[in-house]
Amino acid sequence: MVTKNSTEFDRYAERKAFDETQEGVKGIVDAKITQVPRIFHHPTQDILPDKNSSVSVSDLEIPIIDFASVHVDTTSREAVVEQVRNAAQNWGFFQVVNHGVPLNVLEEMKDAVRRFHEDDPEVKKLYFSRDAIKNKFVYNSNFDLYSSSSSVNWRDSITCYMAPDPPTPEELPDTCRDAMFEYSKHVLSLGGLLFELLSEALGLKSETLKCMDCVKTLLMLCHYYPPCPQPDLTLGISKHSDNSFLTVLLQDNIGGLQILHQDSWVDVSPLPGALVINIGDFLQLITNDKFVSVEHRVLANRKGPRVSVASFFSSSIRPNSRVYGPMKELVSEENPPKYRDTTITEYSKGFFQKGLDGTSLLSNFRI
């Protein structure tokens, strides 16, 4: 029989009490709290030193790539491919402009996320669940609330798989239904282009990554970060890398996203009309470390709410029997495979059990 000491029990009990309200972090803020509850307290060393270190690298910024000329001619496309290669190898993150997603679609998607999260609590509770397999559309706070050993993060989320088996219109709330369908259609199109460019950046045929089903499944997470009365005590999202091939992020103008680059935290400053692209763990694995999946986090903020939409090209915890390992085109006697074969399902199971604890699961799969 496993016993828990009082500290562990209190920690679990407080998380359970928070979860059972089904009102998330926004419910806490709406109650006019002035102090952050202790389950949200992160160790000081996880917040303040790193947050201050970003000041010293404020002159650094992640690459910004203009896709306007990608279809103009071969020379122009090759120039874009070279920028994508540099960003994927050295940063793991880049922002894209002139990406083809209309500005009004971006704005409506952000507005839709706000509408849902600011709707009547009783309406939101209709969608509250911790089972993203059984339910097409899920609302909750902190997917790893019970599994993670780290502190709870200051955000609420909605989760929905938009491809290849999208929900029916009736399965989505009125507040965000049309926006989610329209935005995901554009993201799937952009994803196809991104995987073409990434394939070319690896020196392979344009269709290579798409033929590996990298663009087949799209999981959308819509995050809502309420204003925080004590942002130096907690985080919006703690340090982690993504369990995806690729992530397309739409963020508003509040800011707070940071990436770990050369042992320093670098701000990913909001750029109007841009989308943030980042390499996921699975793309690092199949490219045998050619492209890098970088750890990142989101700071809490007195301003807000902050809204973001993360679209993951990954089947995540959904059943998927396809086996992946370092691509044969990228390995040799001089550059042997650095990872063992695995499935996205196996990897994601470990990812969700571990939670956002500040470590990368990739190390568990190294040979």
Describe the overall structure.
Keywords: Iron, Metal-binding, Oxidoreductase. This is Fe2OG dioxygenase domain-containing protein. Belongs to the iron/ascorbate-dependent oxidoreductase family. By secondary structure, the chain is an alpha+beta fold. It has one domain: Jelly Rolls, CATH 2.60.120. 32% of the residues lie in helices and 19% in strands. Strands 1-2-10-7-12-5-4-3 form an 8-stranded mixed beta sheet. A 4-stranded antiparallel beta sheet has the order 6-11-8-9. The longest helix is centred in the middle third of the chain and has 25 residues, at 177-201. The protein is globular.
Relevant terms:
single chain, about 375 residues, alpha+beta, eight-stranded mixed β-sheet, four-stranded antiparallel β-sheet, 10 helices, disordered N terminus
Task: State the end-to-end distance.
Answer: 36 Å
Return residue spans where pLDDT drops below 50 for at least 5 consecutive residues: 1-6, 49-56
Kindly state the number of beta strands.
14
What oligomeric state is this? single chain
Count of domains: 1
CATH topology: Jelly Rolls
Major β-sheet strand ordering = 1-2-10-7-12-5-4-3
Superfamily (CATH H level) name:
B-lactam Antibiotic, Isopenicillin N Synthase, Chain
Give the helix/strand class: alpha+beta
CATH architecture classification: Sandwich
CATH class: Mainly Beta
Global geometry: globular
Query: How much of the residues is beta strand, in percent?
Result: 15-25%
**Helical segment count:** 10
Alpha carbon gyration radius: 20 Å
**What is the averaged pLDDT score?**
93
